[in-house]
C-alpha cells in the first residue's frame, strides 16, 4: 500500500531523513519507534507532502505522491492525526468533525459521524462542547476521529499516547486495534511508547538519527536485546 524508498528530507541544509526505506502492506499496523528527534514525525510529514522529500520516492497504492501537494495526497485516502493533537480548540467537537470530513461527499457525513461516535462514544456526549475544554484523552480521541471522517484507507498516527495517563494510553491503543480490525483501516503509527506500539503492531521499524537501523515483526523487536536496552528498560 505504501512504499517509501531512499527518502531524504531536509530542513534547509540539515538532513533530517537519510535514505529511509519502509513498506506498509494493506491491512497492517506498522509502527516506527525511536528517540525524540530521530526523524519520525518528519517522515510522517514527508508522506503528507510538507516538507517534500528532496530525494527518493513515496508511492501510495501505486501512485507516486513524492511531489504532490498535501491536499491531493489527502484526497487519495491518507489521513493524519498529528503529534500534539492540534484540534481546533474554539470549535465544538461536532465542528471539528465537520472539518475532518471536508474532502468527502457531504451525503456521507451523517453515516460517518455515527461511525466515529460508535468508536468514540465519549465524543457523542461532548459533541457541542468546545474542543479546547476536553481532557487530554478526549482531545486525542477527537484528533483520531477527525482523521477518520475523511474515510482514509491509510491512517497516520503521530505519538497518540503523548502526555496521557497510562489508563488512557491503554484505551487509545485498544481503539487503534479496533479501527484496524473492524474498520479495515491500515495504520502507520509513530510512537515513543515502544512497549505498547510493538505489542500492537504487526511489524515495526527502529529509527536512529534519520536512518532505519532495525526492522522485524512486533514480537521480534520486543525480544531484541538492542531494542530492549534502548527503549524498554527505563531509557
UniProtKB/TrEMBL annotation:
The keyword Transport applies. SMART domains: AAA (SM00382). Keywords: Amino-acid transport, ATP-binding, Nucleotide-binding, Transport. Pfam families: ABC_tran. The keyword ATP-binding applies. InterPro entries: AAA+_ATPase, ABC_branched_ATPase_LivF/BraG, ABC_transporter-like_ATP-bd, ABC_transporter-like_CS, BCAA_Transport_ATP-bd_LivF, P-loop_NTPase. Residues 2-234 form the ABC transporter domain. GO terms for molecular function: ATP binding. It comes from the Bacteria. Belongs to the ABC transporter superfamily. This is ABC transporter ATP-binding protein. The lineage of its organism: Bacteria, Pseudomonadati, Pseudomonadota, Alphaproteobacteria, Rhodospirillales.
Amino acid at each position: 500500500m505504501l512504499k517509501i524508498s531512499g527518502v531524504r528530507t531536509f530542513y534547509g541544509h540539515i538532513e533530517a531523513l537519510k535514505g529511509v526505506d519502509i513498506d506498509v502492506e494493506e491491512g497492517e499496523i506498522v509502527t516506527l519507534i525511536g528517540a525524540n528527534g530521530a526523524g519520525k514525525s518528519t517522515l510522517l510529514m514527508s508522506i503528507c507532502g510538507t516538507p517534500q522529500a528532496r530525494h527518493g520516492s513515496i508511492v501510495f497504492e501505486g501512485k507516486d505522491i513524492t511531489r504532490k501537494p498535501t491536499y491531493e495526497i489527502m484526497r487519495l485516502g491518507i489521513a493524519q492525526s498529528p503529534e500534539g493533537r492540534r484540534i481546533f480548540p474554539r470549535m465544538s467537537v461536532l465542528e471539528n468533525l465537520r472539518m475532518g470530513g471536508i474532502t468527502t461527499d457531504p451525503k456521507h457525513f451523517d453515516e460517518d459521524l455515527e461511525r466515529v461516535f460508535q468508536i468514540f462514544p465519549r465524543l457523542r456526549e461532548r459533541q457541542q462542547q468546545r474542543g479546547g475544554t476536553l481532557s487530554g484523552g478526549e482531545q486525542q480521541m477527537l484528533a483520531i476521529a477527525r482523521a477518520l471522517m475523511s474515510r482514509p484507507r491509510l491512517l497516520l498516527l503521530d505519538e497518540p499516547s503523548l502526555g496521557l495517563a497510562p489508563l488512557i494510553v491503554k484505551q487509545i491503543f485498544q481503539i487503534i486495534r479496533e479501527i484496524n480490525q473492524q474498520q479495515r483501516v491500515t495504520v502507520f503509527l509513530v510512537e515513543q511508547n515502544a512497549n505498547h506500539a510493538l505489542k500492537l503492531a504487526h511489524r515495526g521499524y527502529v529509527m536512529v538519527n534519520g536512518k532505519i537501523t532495525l526492522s522485524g515483526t512486533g514480537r521480534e523487536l520486543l525480544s531484541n536485546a538492542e531494542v530492549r536496552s534502548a527503549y524498554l528498560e527505563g531509557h
